[in-house]
Design brief:
The chain is of the alpha+beta class and 211 residues long. Helix content is 40%, strand content 20%. The chain is built from eight helices and six strands, in the order βααββαβββααααα. Strands 1-3-2-6-5-4 form a six-stranded antiparallel sheet. It is rod-shaped and about 95 Å long.
Length: 211
């Protein structure tokens, strides 16, 4: 953090110093915040926080981009521009500060070093990526009874009608679906489904053999 002697800074610009410092502290060491006095040439920087991002300090000159904007008398702020530094891409925003006559007297600039964010994004992308295979419909149930109920409810949806309204062919398809999902490997599942279908276990086993 470096700040020019307050007596040398325009009173209106002085009020932006704690704002600049607060932004820098909020976003951390990879966020440089610069306060320019556009009435001073060439040493326009009067306050800078995390200056290591661009290697500048108080007394450093205005950038060529800001100089061109000022020369062209443009009053438009520019937000989220991409700039290149020795460390990589910087995300930059500059907001002009105007006096009571709407004349530009200063500029508040925010420069975020994105190289570490890009690395973090790559790590996150890798963590949430999946193998290029068919997605598995894996069930995460708190206990075995809930798992059985989930699979049975799923089978009902697949058949498209309540168990009580299923005909024999649909019941066989219902059992085949549950068998393919591995439900009958669970102890007690045969008895549960037999009671649901209101058939004997032997009849259910015959359905399973057909599947």
């Amino acid at each position: 953090m470096t700040i020019q002697n307050n007596k040398a800074i325009h009173p209106l610009l002085q009020s932006f110093i704690p704002i600049a410092e607060g932004i820098a502290k909020t976003f951390g060491e990879f966020c440089e915040v610069v306060l320019h006095d556009c009435t001073v040439h060439p040493s326009s920087i009067v306050a800078i926080f995390n200056g290591h991002v661009t290697g500048r300090k108080v007394g450093s000159p205005i950038t060529n981009h800001l100089a061109n904007i000022k020369k062209e008398m443009s009053n438009d702020d520019f937000i989220n521009d991409a700039n290149i530094s020795k460390h990589g891409t910087i995300k930059s925003s500059s907001m002009f500060i105007r006096d009571e006559n709407q004349q530009v007297i200063g500029c508040l600039c925010i420069n975020i070093e994105t190289v570490y964010l890009q690395v973090a994004r790559q790590v996150i992308d890798n963590l949430v990526s999946f193998a290029p295979i068919e997605q598995k419909d894996e069930k995460f149930a708190p206990d075995i009874n809930v798992l059985q109920d989930q699979l049975i409810d799923e089978a009902v949806v697949v058949i498209g009608k309540p168990v009580s309204l299923m005909d024999k062919q649909e019941r066989e398809e219902f059992v085949r679906y549950l068998d393919n999902k591995g439900l009958f490997l669970i102890k007690g599942a045969v008895q549960k489904v037999a009671e649901l279908l209101n058939i004997s276990k032997y009849t259910l086993y015959s359905y399973i053999e057909k599947s």
